[in-house]
Design brief:
about 260 residues, mainly alpha, elongated
């Protein structure tokens, strides 16, 4: 009976040992699973941290890049205020010329007016403004511009010529003749004599008109419209023989012009 007790006691110890081993194994398994969960959680957190850092990085990079662009834009804008009046005037002149060359005279006018404000003593500014106003049909304002040009430079040929041309269009032939005569004292130009003839014709001074047109032909004998106009003037003056000579010359010049092509 004593042996049986010892044997049973040994079996009890073995059972306890096995139970302890199972508990230890279970504890280690649970710990392993807990460690895995923690590791997975930490990994996920690390991934989130990296992702967050990347987004923040790119956001700040974009802000920095945008800041540079804004800085450059502001620097350029501020530099506009550092331009001299002469530099600004040159910009307005160039812009107005750009629009005028494209036939956009209304747009050209805006910048020409700015140019005149900056350089009121610049005869070319007033002259270009006068040309633009003339092109848009504003003859009265254009004449005032040309008068300002002539105050700055009384012998400005362009100012005298275009002012006189506008007077012809307005049928103010006497004032037109004043300008053309002044131009003839400064220079000899076929166009001036041609338009002087038109002004004389407007006043029914046919003989003076013929004299002016003959001078135009003398300077530029190949211009068809001068001969043609002389032909009509001589018809009105009842000199049909002379008129026929001019009309014949017109046909000869037209044939020569056709042969050139």
């Amino acid at each position: 009976m004593g042996n049986t007790s010892i044997h049973e006691h040994d079996n009890s110890l073995d059972d306890i040992s096995v139970a302890e081993d199972e508990l230890i194994g279970q504890s280690m398994s649970e710990k392993s699973q807990t460690d895995k969960k923690k590791k997975k959680k930490n990994q996920k957190q690390a991934d989130n941290d990296r992702s967050g850092y990347s987004t923040t990085f790119y956001l700040h990079a974009m802000l920095l890049f945008g800041g540079r662009i804004l800085h450059k834009a502001l620097s350029f804008y501020n530099s506009l205020f550092e331009l001299t009046s002469q530099e600004k005037a040159k910009i307005y002149r160039n812009i107005s010329t750009h629009y005028a060359n494209k036939g956009h005279h209304e747009k050209s006018l805006e910048h020409l007016k700015d140019w005149v404000k900056l350089e009121p003593a610049n005869q070319d500014a007033h002259y270009q403004l006068g040309l633009a106003l003339s092109a848009t049909g504003n003859s009265a304002s254009a004449i005032r511009c040309f008068e300002k040009v002539l105050k700055l430079n009384p012998e400005h040929k362009g100012g005298i010529y275009h002012k006189s041309i506008l007077f012809v269009k307005m049928k103010n032939f006497e004032q037109a003749l004043e300008g053309f005569k002044k131009l003839c004292d400064i220079t000899e130009n076929a166009k001036v004599y041609y338009n002087m003839g038109i002004a004389y014709d407007g006043l029914n001074q046919v003989d003076d008109a013929i004299t002016s047109l003959e001078k135009a032909v003398e300077i530029d004998p190949d211009e068809i419209k001068y001969h043609q106009y002389l032909g009509f003037l001589n018809v009105r003056n009842d000199d049909h023989k002379k008129a026929a000579g001019y009309f014949t010359k017109v046909m000869e010049l037209e044939r020569e012009r056709d042969d050139d092509f």
